[in-house]
Amino acid sequence: MAQTTPNHTQTVSGWAALDSSGKAVPYTFKRRENGVNDVTIEIMYCGICHTDLHFAKNDWGITMYPVVPGHEITGIITKVGSNVNKFKLGDRVGVGCLAASCLECDFCKSSRENYCDQIQLTYNGIFWDGSITYGGYSKFIVADHRYVVRIPENLPMDATAPLLCAGITVFSPFKDSNLVDTPGKKVGVVGLGGLGHLAVKFGKAFGHHVTVISTSPSKEKEARERFGVDDFIVSTNAQKLQVCSHIIRSSEKNSRFYRGYSVSQAFSGANTRITQSKRDIGSGKRSVRGSMTGSTSETQEMLDVCGKHNITCDIELVKTDNINEAWDRLARNDVRYRFVIDIAGNSSSL
Ligand SMILES: [Zn+2]
Ligand SMILES: [Zn+2]
Q1: What is the SS3 assignment for 192?
Q2: pTM for this model (two decimals)
Q3: Which DSSP letter does residue 174 get?
Q4: Measured between alpha carbons, how far is 204 from 227 in angstroms, rounded to an integer?
Q5: At residue 281, does pLDDT exceed 80?
Q6: Which of 76, 128, 251, 330 has its CA 20 to 30 A from that of 182?
Q7: Which cofactor does it need (predicted)?
Q8: In CATH, which of 3.30.1360.40, 3.10.450.40, 3.40.50.720, 3.90.280.10 is domain 166-292?
Q9: Could you tell me the CA-to-CA distances from 291 to 12, 176, 177, 263, 276 in Å, in that order?
Q10: Nearest bound ligand to the CA of residue 116
């Protein structure tokens, strides 16, 4: 049953997985009233992240059913709380992975709330009022304004949605390694999927020499012709790997949550695993860094950079009737390069 938190008075239609069979079905539930710090967002689009599949199928054993997935949300503001100054009715906005944090720790106070140890996610999290959070596979969402970002006017709402998770996950390592708009570095991107193709776009837009490192030789043509990558390495070729000075590992499959990696000067081994021997890292003053999505301010910075360079995700738009089909295809990696659900569009099931 839907939660019964007293201030959850708004009825909303959405799609949920009810058990570990992992099928999305129409689901009606309650959201909280729009509080003083909240905005209500009529959802237009929601990207499908591999994480959604993991939660739907309870792959990590932490799913609280029913789960309404979705943390790549774009939409229009329809209500604004009295404490909210930075947004107004009609604004084009986005919500990513974060729903709440403690607001008081060093991470929260320095705009790095994504590393707060009390972080709560946009779905399958516990909000401050004790309710379970429900994500963007739904018609509207109530979000605290401190976790909402503005979408630049020149970016389309559908192809921007995946930037809220996939985009920030690979942007963060670019930023951490001072690779944003500092051209001329050699950047390697491991994997050319939903995250990887965005890392390639960032790398090219920032003026770097971009190499895709992949296990699939068949992706070379696409990497070069569609995305203009400068080089392509099959990941078993250890000798060639050493030419990259910065490597972004973009694969999210099987990784819990949403990690991007920036590995500076780190590769001398015969494979692309992140684990390096102490000697490998010590000689040459190499470093390995990890990151987990990005903060709200960092996500805003990424969107502004995307607006400036006209970077969006390559997407396949799906109707709400076809969520399960998209999930099945995503499980087979059959997508170029990210599915986005047309939440506001017509469907037969609601
Ligand atoms: Zn995600
Ligand atoms: Zn905190």
Answers
A1: coil
A2: 0.89
A3: H
A4: 8
A5: no
A6: 251
A7: Zn(2+)
A8: 3.40.50.720
A9: 33, 9, 11, 11, 17
A10: 2
Q: Report the separation in Å between the CA atom of 7 and the middle of ligand 1, taken as the mean of its atom positions.
A: 28
Ligand 1 ion: residues within 5 Å (CB): 49, 51, 165
Instruction: Write down the domain spans for the chain.
Output: 10-164+294-342, 166-292
Average pLDDT over residues 332-337: 92
Which amino acid type is present at position 208?
Answer: H
Q: How many Cβ atoms from other residues are within 10 Å of residue 129's Cβ?
A: 13
Residue corresponding to tokens 């400068």 = 230
Tell me which of 265 and 289 has the higher pLDDT.
Answer: 289
Residue 273: pLDDT band by 50, 70, 90 thresholds? very low
Tokens 């309710």 -> residue: 131
Residues 6+ apart with CB under 8 A from 7: 32, 33, 35, 129
Q: What type of residue sits at position 283?
A: S
Torsion sign over Cα 70, 115, 314, 235 = negative
Residues with Cβ–ion distance below 5 A, ligand 2 = 101-102, 105, 108, 116
CATH class of 10-164+294-342: alpha beta
Q: Give the amino acid at 65.
A: Y
